[in-house]
Amino acid sequence: MNSLLQNAPVGFAFFDRERRYIRINEQLADCNGILAEAHMGRTLADLIPVVGASVEPLIDRVFDTGEPIPYREVMGETPREPGVTRHWLIALFPVHEGMEVAAVGAVVMEVTDLRRAETARRQSDERFRSVFELAAVGIERVGLDGRLLDVNAKICDIVGYPREELLKRTYRDITDPADLPAEEGLIERLLSGELSSYALEKRYRRKDGGAVWVRVTSSLARITGTEPAYRITVAEDITERKAMEAELRSARDEAERANLAKSKFLAAASHDLRQPLQSLFFFAAALSAHVGSAAGAKILTHLEQGLDALKGLLDSLLDVSRLDAGVVTPVFEEFDVAEVLDPIRAAYAPVAAGKGIGWQVEVAAGRVRSDRTLLGRLLRNLVENAIRYTDSGLVRVQCRPDGRFLSIVVQDTGMGIPDDHLERIFEEFHQVGNPERDRNQGLGLGLAIVRRLSRLLEHPVQVRSAVGKGSAFRVLVPTGEPVMAAAAVAGSEGPGMGQGRLAVLVDDDAIVLMGLQLILTEWGYTVLAAGSADQAMERLSAQTRVPDIVIADYRLREGRIGTEVILRVRERYGAGVPGVILTGETGPDCLLDATAHGLTVIHKPVTPRELAAAVDQQLKAVPA
Fold first, then answer.
1. 532-575 pLDDT, tens per residue?
2. Which CATH superfamily is domain 333-478 in?
3. Buried/exposed code over 174-188 (b: 16+ C-beta within 10 A; e: otherwise)
C-alpha cells in the first residue's frame, strides 16, 4: 500500500469522519503546496478553504451512504500559487472495516494545463471563426473531391447562394465552364506537390445566372490527424476592376484607331497634294529662263517663295505621318555636334537677318551619340519656331556639357508662352498667338514633330518661358567618346548639266510628267517620257542608245511600281543603269524596295535643286 501511494501518478488522500487527513501521498501534498506531515490532523477546509467547501459535503455523503462518488471537477487556489485558479478531478470511495465505513479515500488528478489548453483552443477557434466570417474576401474550404466543406458570408454574397445551399455544391458547379480547364490543371499540379499554391482570375456563375470575376488563390491544407486534407481558397471580387480594364482597353483602342485614321488622312492628303505641287515646281523652274523683265522675275520669285512655303508645310505633314506610322528608324552614331549646328548656323543667318533680329550659334566642342539627320530636323524645327515668333531681339543656340549629356538650348526673346499653353504647344496644329490661322506662320506642326523626334531618339526636351520675355527649349543629347580631330571633308560638287544624256521619265500623272520633262530638257538631257512601264519599254525599243538614268514614280497604273521599270531597263541594258524614285508615298515599302536595289528615293514635292542633287548622286555612283 505504501509503495502504491507513493509511486502512483495521481494524488491519494484518506479522511476520517471529522474530515481530517489521516493519510496523503507526496504527489497530492506537492500539488497542494503543503508538506505531507502538515496535512495530518487538519481538515481540507482548513488548508484549502474553497476546495474544502465543495468537497467536504461529498466526504460526508460517502460516509453516510457507503457509495463511491465518480470523478467531478473542482476549482480553487492553493498555498503554492495564491491567486491562480487550478482545476482538479476528484473521485471519492469508502474504506470499510467490516460493515462500517472507517475512512473515505480520494483520488485526485490535476487538469489545470488541460483546461488552459482547451480555453486557448476555444478562443483560437472563436477568433478564426470571427476572421473567417467577417473577412472582406470570400473564403472556402474545398475537399479534394471538389465539394465545398465550409464557406464564409462573403463568398455567399459573391455567388448569391445561401450557405446551406452552397454547401451542397462543388467548386465546379459555380465556376464558368470556360475557366475550368485552366484551374483543374493548376489543382493537379498543386496536389502533386509541384506547386505550393496557385492564383488565377476566373468567373463564378451566380445563382441568378450572372457572372462575377474573381481572383482566386488556393493552397493545400495538409492535416496530420484524422481529418482529411482539403484546399483553402480565397476569392476576391474583381468584377469592377475588370470592367474598368475593359473600358480602358476600349478607350485605348478607340484612341489608336483615331490616331491611325489621322495618320492615314495626313498621308493621303499629303500624297494627293504633292502631285500638282510637284509640277508647279518644275514649271516655275523652267519658266525662269524665259522671264526677261525685272517685274516678271520679281513675280516669279514670289511664286517660288510661295511654293517653298507650301512644300515646307507638306514636309511637316509627311514627318508627322511617318513618325506616327513608326516607319522612321534612327541610325545612331557618334559625331561632332558642330556637324549638325554649323549647317543650321549658315542656313538661318539670312532668315534672321531678313527679320532684323540677332542670330548667334555658340558651338561647344564635343561629340554626341544620335541620329544626325533626325537631330538636325529636331533642332531646325526649334530654330524655325523661335525665329517665327521673335520680332525683335535675338535668337541664340547654345550648347554646353551637362553630365553625361550635351545640353543644346534654343533661346529667343519673342512673345513667350503662357503657362496654360506649355503642354499644348506640342500638340498638332496648336499655335500660340495665331487665332486667325495665318498660314504664313505655318501649320503648327513644328513642335509636334519635335515631341515625336524627342521620344524616338530618347532625347528629353524641356521648355521654360515668360510671357513678353521669350522662351528657351533645352534638348539633352547623350555624349559620345572624344576622338582626335579629323580633316575636313570636301563638299560634293554641284550637279552638272545633262550634256545630252538620255533620261527615261516614267510617271502616270501627266502634269508631273510634263513638268519633269520640261526641267530635264532645260538641263540639257535628251528625254524619253512615258506614262507606264510598258510604254517606257516600248519607246526604248525604238532607241539605239542606252539610257543614262531612269527617273520613275513609285506607284504607277495597274498596280505597277517604279522599281519594276528600272529593273526591266537594267535587264535589257545592264545592271549599271542608275535610277531615282520620285514619289509621294509616305510608307516604308517604297524606301525598303528602292534601297534593296541601290536606288535613291526623293519625296514629292522636290525642288529642282533637290532633284538635280539626287540625279547627280546616282550618275556619280556609276563606275567610269
1. 989 999 999 988 899 999 999 998 888 889 999 999 999 999 88
2. Histidine kinase-like ATPase, C-terminal domain (3.30.565.10)
3. bbeeebeeebeebbe
